[in-house]
């Protein structure tokens, strides 16, 4: 049996063992979800699309009027140093920035400095998640959630904030109903996204994904669209209905953690899975992770 990895994390200036990574109970990220995060993969000691993640981190911070506690360059070096100290080739990591610790009021003036945490953990999903993250074999079974995606009129969907409660409730609803994952609709009734993934369909050779105005503009979503353009696969952003999912030739989800995930069923309607386009895109993303990420060393 392999020995468990001792991951090294970072919290507010200190490198610590994962089990010692702690923030104040008065941190506004804990109290109010006031902050942002980025999740990314390290494969073969390369961070996939690292600069894209840092770009989005800076955009989210600007939108939230949250001053990052360190420079972009310093945060990048901290991330790499955590991986070096953990002595791993492959890992899943998360950069979390909150407004910081302060008096428990909905007022940012009580927070002197933002909290910065870099968390590393096993790249394999925990066994208690069951089939929700399976990447091989049968595709995912999805259920349309009663919870709707928060509209950008209320809060900008492109900000990767710490506010994920509606996504959590959608996942709970799907799992308790015997499904692997949920699909959230926007307030207009169009398909938005899964709780932690973007949605794609293939119909008559055309790749389609919901427009980015009511969904997170995912990094893997961007990569898939780039691969499609280079491969001559026609792709478009469009308003999609559940009918488009029910009648798709292929359907899949994308995220940094899931990469490209085949979908086999939506609300009891079977979909061929995994299809040839899904397989091709998944293979391309996995190869890019292995060879094109930013080196740690």
Outline of the structure:
This protein has 297 residues and is an alpha+beta fold. It contains seven helices and 16 strands.
Question: Can you describe this structure?
Answer:
The chain has 297 residues and is α+β, with helices and mostly antiparallel strands. It has helices at 28-32, 50-63, 72-86, 165-176, 219-231, 242-246, 276-292, and strands at residues 8-11, 14-17, 35-43, 46-47, 91-98, 115-121, 140-148, 181-185, 191-193, 198-203, 206-209, 235-237, 250-255, 259-266, 269-270, 294-295. The strands form 2 sheets. Strands 7, 8, 9, 10, 11, 12, 13, 14 and 15 form a 9-stranded mixed beta sheet that branches. It has a 7-stranded antiparallel beta sheet with strand order 2-1-6-5-3-4-16, with helices on both faces. Strand 13 and strand 14 (259-266) form a beta hairpin. 40% of the residues are buried.
Poorly predicted spans: none
CATH class of the largest domain: Alpha Beta
Distance between the termini: 29 Å
Portion in strands: 25-35%
CATH topology of the largest domain: D-amino Acid Aminotransferase, Chain A, domain 2
Mean pLDDT: 94
Which SSEs are present, and which pair or pack?
Blueprint: E1 8-11, E2 14-17, H1 28-32, E3 35-43, E4 46-47, H2 50-63, H3 72-86, E5 91-98, E6 115-121, E7 140-148, H4 165-176, E8 181-185, E9 191-193, E10 198-203, E11 206-209, H5 219-231, E12 235-237, H6 242-246, E13 250-255, E14 259-266, E15 269-270, H7 276-292, E16 294-295
Parallel strand pairs: 7-8, 7-14, 11-12
Antiparallel strand pairs: 1-2, 1-6, 3-4, 3-5, 4-16, 5-6, 8-9, 10-11, 10-13, 13-14, 14-15
């Amino acid at each position: 049996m392999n020995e468990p990895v001792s991951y090294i994390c970072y919290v507010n200036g200190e490198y610590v063992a994962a089990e010692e990574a702690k923030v104040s109970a008065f941190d506004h990220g804990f109290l109010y979800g006031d902050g942002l995060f980025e999740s990314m993969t390290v494969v073969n000691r390369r961070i996939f699309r690292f600069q894209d993640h840092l770009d989005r981190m800076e955009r989210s911070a600007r939108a939230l009027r949250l001053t990052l506690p360190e420079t972009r360059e310093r945060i990048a070096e901290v991330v790499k140093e955590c991986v070096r100290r953990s002595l791993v080739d492959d890992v899943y990591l998360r950069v979390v920035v909150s407004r910081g610790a302060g008096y428990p009021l909905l007022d940012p003036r009580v927070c002197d400095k933002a909290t910065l945490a870099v968390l590393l953990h096993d790249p394999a999903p925990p066994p208690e998640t069951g089939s929700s993250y399976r990447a091989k074999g049968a595709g995912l079974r999805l259920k349309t959630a009663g919870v709707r995606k928060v509209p950008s009129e209320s809060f900008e969907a492109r900000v990767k904030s710490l506010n994920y409660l509606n996504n959590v409730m959608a996942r709970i609803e799907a799992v308790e109903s015997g499904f692997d994952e949920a699909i959230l609709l926007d307030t207009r009734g169009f398909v938005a996204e899964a709780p932690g993934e973007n949605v794609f369909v293939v119909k008559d050779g055309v790749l389609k994904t919901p427009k980015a105005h009511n969904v997170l503009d995912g990094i893997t979503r961007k990569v898939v669209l780039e691969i499609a353009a280079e491969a001559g696969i026609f792709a478009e952003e469009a308003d999609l209905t559940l009918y488009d999912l029910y009648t798709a030739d292929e359907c899949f989800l994308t995220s940094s953690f899931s990469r490209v995930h085949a979908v086999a069923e939506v609300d009891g309607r079977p979909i061929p899975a995994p299809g040839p386009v899904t397989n091709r895109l998944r293979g391309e993303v996995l190869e890019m992770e292995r060879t094109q990420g930013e080196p740690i060393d």
